[in-house]
Amino acid sequence: MRISLYATLATLALAVPAVAQDGDAEKGQKEFNKCKACHMVQAPDGTDIVKGGKTGPNLYGIVGSKPAAEEGFKYGEGILELAEKNPDMVWDEASLIEYMTDPGAYLKAHTGDDKAKTKMTFKLNKNQADVAAFLAAHSPDEG
Ligand code: HEC
């Protein structure tokens, strides 16, 4: 058990390189107002960090988790294809920044499928690093 846990942690550490990020989590929480129409950030024990809608998946713990991994959420084919083609991928701050900037372009780039479509009809064009830092601050499994 212990060995496999360390192996898992080692894999995670490799998959989530410690890139220096300059996002400000506090500013990011305000910027997240643009996301909360569709996303909540709710801990597994039911604590609301940000109350939000259900059009998109709960983003608690998103840093360090695989794409399209929320059980019971009906993801689109594009992001499922992303997960399938990148079985070792976990979200980190850099990939979240790229994704929220243009989710459709992100899926096309990282599936290699020009027809990949996203169900997220929103693009954030500023302060992405702050939002990523805010999400990382509510991702206990990170690193
Ligand atoms: C209009 C609704 C809407 C808004 C606003 C929105 N999203 Fe989304 N988001 C979605 C939907 C729907 C999905 C599922 C995407 C799919 O299935 O293709 C999604 C997926 C995601 C994912 C992937 C989650 C996973 O489980 O892999 C992330 C990360 C994300 N959104 C971040 C954000 C952030 C950060 C913001 C604010 C900057 C935001 N979203 C704003 C609707 C939205």
TrEMBL record:
Keywords: Electron transport, Heme, Iron, Metal-binding, Signal, Transport. Residues 23-139 form the Cytochrome c domain. Residues 1-20 form the signal peptide. SUPFAM superfamilies: Cytochrome c. InterPro entries: Cyt_c-like_dom, Cyt_c-like_dom_sf, Cyt_c_1A/1B. The keyword Signal applies. The keyword Lipid metabolism does not apply. One of its GO terms (molecular function) is heme binding. PANTHER family: CYTOCHROME C. This is Cytochrome C. It comes from Paracoccus solventivorans.
